[in-house]
Automatic annotation (TrEMBL):
SMART domains per UniProt: Arrestin_C
GO BP annotation list: protein transport
Organism annotation: Octopus sinensis
Protein name: Arrestin domain-containing protein 3 isoform X2
Family under the similarity heading: Belongs to the arrestin family.
Coiled-coil region(s): none
């Protein structure tokens, strides 16, 4: 509208992070270049989860793709900040807003049970507020203002109630091995092992890993990365994997080499906890993975972990703060099909650990004597050592003996 210079929704909380049951305080601010006639001012609050996915169905010789789109509404409220509504839902009043700035304050209490905010591929749990000014023949809307809902998650309490405390504190390990070659012609093998001392972490905490890579083959491998992966599942659909964070361990490993990392540190970034309470259509899990690239395959080892929001008892932390999810900021979810998209990174609790909580990383690079490459080099060397080197006289004598025979 020509008379409106700016119309926006302002929240008083600088972090714009709330918990279930909190009061959201803010205002609708409008700046006019000329007077306008309005009939009412309305504000909308909405909280919902939505997921969209495709399912392939086999019908004999044909395959049919079925699209699913589910939504859960947690609240969808509308309030009149100014004006009067008649029995038919129309506006009764009409007033002239003069040139300049005008503010319409609001206060809204959130419901007492809500899932944590989340933005994922073709999925979200999103909370928004939006304002609207209405006239006789026009409407002016603010942009949807997203805000974060945060909910603490402490799996230690769950496991203590179930009597399974030791399992979450026990080390967890994965080992994978692949033989190279075809049939009877084997050219060696490659292997990877990953071990974590525990399974529960909070954002800001260092994941301390022990990693071993062995390349007992003639092939040179590519880069090796440690990754934190988020596995998002909608109902019974196939999961979608998102790389939340990645750290390069090494550029490559030559044939016959073994790399070992003892106490390798990998910091958990701001990310959604492993449980979305109250949300029935989206589930989230995490794993730490080692991904090593070869020409025609990837060597992969992974262990499941749990992202919590409350550190272990006795852990010393300097402070915590709310920070935006890095994966959302990087646009990892911008290809969210036909779902409404917003450039918004939900904020989560992140802890700043004291310097004493960190360990030193030890890396070892070993040439394996029993590798195919090493054996081949030793065989060549032994052949050279056992060979006879003839001088010119020897050659002449040998040729004469051959002629006589």
């Amino acid at each position: 509208m020509l008379g409106v210079l700016n119309f926006e929704c302002i929240l008083d909380d600088p972090d714009q992070v709330y918990t279930a049951g909190d009061k959201i305080k803010g205002s609708l601010s409008i700046h006019l270049r000329s007077p306008i006639a309005i009939t009412g001012v309305t504000i909308y609050f909405k909280g919902a989860a939505r997921a969209k996915w495709c399912e392939l169905m086999d019908n004999g010789s044909r395959r049919t793709e079925i699209e699913h789109d589910k939504e859960e509404i947690y609240f969808d409220d509308r309030f009149c900040l100014w004006g009067k509504v008649d029995d038919k839902g129309g506006w009764e009043s009409l007033e002239i807003l003069e040139k300049g700035s005008h503010v319409f304050p609001f206060l809204y209490r959130l419901p007492h049970s809500l899932p944590c905010s989340f933005e994922g591929p073709d999925t979200f749990v999103r909370y928004t507020v939006q304002g609207k000014i209405s006239g006789r023949d026009y409407e002016v809307n603010t942009k949807e203002k997203p805000f974060s809902i945060f909910k603490d998650y402490d799996p230690h309490l769950e496991n203590s109630c179930e009597g399974d405390v030791d399992s979450v504190y026990s080390p967890i390990e994965d080992y994978t091995e692949k033989s190279l070659g075809n049939g009877c012609c084997q050219t060696g093998h490659v292997s990877c092992s990953l071990m974590l001392k525990k399974q529960i972490f909070v954002p800001g905490e260092n994941i301390i890993a022990t990693i071993t890579l062995q390349n007992i083959s003639f092939r040179k491998c590519g880069s090796c990365n440690m990754q934190l992966k988020q596995i998002v599942r909608c109902s019974d659909s196939c999961p979608v994997v998102v790389i939340v964070a990645s750290s390069k361990l090494c550029e490559s490993i030559r044939p016959g080499q073994s790399c070992h990392w003892q106490g390798y540190e990998f910091t958990v970034p701001p990310t959604c906890p492993s449980r979305l309470d109250m949300c029935k259509i989206i589930s989230i899990k995490y794993c730490v993975a080692i991904d090593t690239a070869f020409d025609d395959f990837n060597l992969y080892a992974a262990v499941p972990i749990v992202i919590a929001t409350i550190p272990e008892t006795g852990t010393e932390v300097a402070k915590w703060s709310y920070r935006g999810s890095q994966s959302s900021k990087k646009g990892a979810y911008q290809e969210a099909a036909e779902l409404p998209h917003t450039e918004f990174a939900p904020k989560y609790k992140v802890y700043d650990y004291l310097p004493g909580q960190t360990n030193r990383d030890t890396t070892m690079l070993i040439d394996l004597p029993h590798s195919p490459g090493q054996s081949k080099r030793q065989h060549r060397k032994s052949n050279l050592d056992n060979s006879v080197i003839c001088n010119d006289d020897d050659k002449e004598e040998t040729s004469l003996k051959a002629a006589k025979t």
